[in-house]
Write a structure and sequence with these properties.
It is found in: Cell membrane. The chain is of the alpha/beta class. It has a single domain (2-86, 154-242), classed as 3-Layer(aba) Sandwich (Rossmann fold), CATH 3.40.50. It is built from 10 helices and 10 strands. It has helices at 40-47, 68-77, 93-105, 109-122, 138-150, 168-183, 195-201, 219-222, 225-228, 231-242, and strands at residues 2-11, 14-24, 29-33, 55-60, 63-64, 78-81, 156-160, 187-191, 204-209, 212-218. A 6-stranded mixed sheet has the order 6-7-8-3-9-10, sandwiched between helices. The protein has a 4-stranded antiparallel sheet with strand order 2-1-4-5, with helices on one face. Strand 4 (55-60) and strand 5 (63-64) form a beta hairpin. Helix 3 packs across helix 4, helix 3 runs parallel beside helix 5 (138-150) and helix 5 (138-150) runs parallel beside helix 6 (168-183). The protein is globular. The chain starts with a strand and ends with a helix. Bound molecules: adenosine-5'-triphosphate and magnesium ion (MG). Magnesium ion is lined by residues 40-41, 160-161.
Length: 243
């Protein structure tokens, strides 16, 4: 389980997360929604130990991400995919995917590369397995990025706007792959502006507003009168639907 209690995070004098509480159990797909600047990416970075937290506690399967000795264990459990496909340009798709299993988990290279090819096949990229990132489209690169996270067999997949740099066709491509991964039971924390997609794959919606989690509801409730009764949620949804 990912457990976040009383999480505070500031950058200089700007407080970005103001006491976040969130628990995510195995098998859940939680979408984190909220306006630009509300703190969604910062939250994901805190879960993955990429930001030093200023208060509260974040644990992943019981490992405290603020303790250097426990961070590596916490990280092994959660794979992160960011908005921009940060693949290594000098490595092929297969090499990018196999890198961490070889270096971090000591998987023999041959096995790691075979697994990488299997993952690429799952996302419809068998034929591009030996291509370099520069030879791939944005959507293809993002699919390689997702495979790279999955290669570590994470208990939790953290996804931060993985489709926001993609055109609608590539977005659809990547979203359908994520829907498949969700169906297989991978626990996901999904930051997105794709409201309808969030609605279709999530078990729960967490809504951030200026660094506070003002709603944490089962998806059905969030998109019903219950969610709409919250002025910030209603305002956000009506604006997103217009855009
Ligand atoms: N490294 C940093 N240094 C200073 N301020 C930062 C840093 N990272 C984020 N911030 C600030 O923290 C706030 C929250 O940023 P964050 O990236 O978490 O928002 P977000 O909800 O992910 O927004 P978006 O939807 O635009 O991606 C913003 O005001 C941002 O300017
Ligand atoms: Mg962000």
């Amino acid at each position: 389980m990912i457990s976040i209690t009383g999480l505070h995070k500031s950058f200089g004098s700007a407080t970005v997360l103001r006491g976040i509480d969130l628990e995510i159990s195995q098998g859940e797909v939680v979408s984190v929604l909220g306006s630009s600047g509300s703190g969604k990416s910062t939250l994901i970075r805190c879960i993955n130990g990429l930001e030093k937290i200023d208060g509260g506690r974040v644990t992943v399967d019981g490992f405290d991400v603020s303790k250097p000795r426990e961070l590596a264990d916490a990280r092994k459990r959660s794979g992160t995919v960011f908005q921009l496909f940060n693949l290594y340009p000098h490595m092929t798709a297969v090499q990018n995917i196999a890198l961490a299993p070889v270096e971090v988990l000591n998987v023999p290279r041959k096995d790691a590369e075979a697994e990488a090819r299997r993952l690429l096949q799952q996302v419809g990229l068998s034929e591009r397995a030996d291509a370099y990132p520069a030879q791939l489209s944005g959507g293809q690169r993002q699919r390689v990025g997702i495979c790279r996270a999955l290669a570590m067999k994470p208990s939790y997949l953290l996804l931060d706007e993985v489709t926001s740099a993609l055109d609608p066709e590539m977005t659809a491509e990547v979203l359908s792959i994520l829907a498949n991964i969700a169906k297989q039971g991978t626990t996901m924390v999904f930051v997105t502006h794709e409201i309808e997609f969030a609605r279709s794959i999530s078990t729960r919606i967490a809504f951030l507003d200026k660094g506070q989690m003002i709603a944490d509801l089962p998806t059905e409730d969030f998109f019903s009168d219950k969610g709409m009764a919250m002025p910030r949620v209603a305002q956000f949804l009506s604006k997103m639907r217009k855009d």
